[in-house]
Amino acid sequence: MSTHRPPTLAPAGQPSWRRRRLDPDHSLGLRLTLAATAAFLVLVPFALLTLLVLGAWAPLHRLDTAVTHALHGYALDHPAWVTLMRIWTEVFAPMPLRAVALLLVIWLLRRGARRLALWATTTMVVGGLFSPLLKLLVGRDRPELLDPVARAAGYSFPSGHALNATLAAGVLLLVFLPFAGRGAARVALWVAALLLTVVTGLSRVALGVHFTSDVLGGWLLGVAVLAATTAAFTSWRAHTGLRPVRPTRDGVAPEVERHPGSA
């Protein structure tokens, strides 16, 4: 007489898939799950904002229009402000930021940090491709003003300046955090990254070439891309046996400061 063992979802003594994903002892699964969740949570508001823009939601349109006209009126009365915004938006335009990122990649390759260079390249390239693609898909026209102080070609949503500033600031921050120590230099690095991101986006609204929601969309998409590529890189680190890191505290590759060849 034979006995039949009742079917089980997992071998005896082995935790379920869900338990493995959330188990702190299985750091790779846990970090992948948390990072994927974080990226998804950022994409949700971006997707919602995109739908509101596509649907020409009246409250969003009124808000965008009110902010644009208020800032345009200020710009007409303050030429020096316009000059400052024009200089900022040109210095921190997508192409100069990509050139800085390229110099960073070359520097990392010379230090032997090939994986870190690949992460920086992937983040900038993948994120940069989203902007023109989404502009074509959404097809939103730029603000129309009677006496514009600046002009820009192409569609409006999302802001390429805001997206690329977010990507570049995030890449530079996460690469150089290990060099900043724990004091004022770390604070200065965070402040510089935030200023680059925020002021670049605001300059586009101040000049009347983007709506506020365009800039917000660029910021959200940039953070989502950073979260996704950072998640992939940190899981890669864990798979190769490097110690776990908290990117916003340690950077993505803290060993690059002392042992660049292992990053």
From TrEMBL:
It is an enzyme of class 3 (hydrolase). This is Undecaprenyl-diphosphatase. InterPro entries: PAP2/HPO, PAP2/HPO_sf. Keywords: Hydrolase, Membrane, Transmembrane, Transmembrane helix. Gene3D superfamilies: Phosphatidic acid phosphatase type 2/haloperoxidase (1.20.144.10). PANTHER family: AT30094P, SPHINGOSINE-1-PHOSPHATE PHOSPHOHYDROLASE. The lineage of its organism: Bacteria, Bacillati, Actinomycetota, Actinomycetes, Micromonosporales. SMART domains: acidPPc (SM00014). Its EC number is 3.6.1.27. It comes from Micromonospora jinlongensis. Residues 117-230 form the Phosphatidic acid phosphatase type 2/haloperoxidase domain. Coiled coil: none annotated. One of its GO terms (molecular function) is undecaprenyl-diphosphatase activity. Residues 244-263 are annotated as: Disordered. The keyword Nucleus does not apply. The chain crosses the membrane at residues 28-58, 91-109, 116-138, 158-180, 187-207, 219-236.
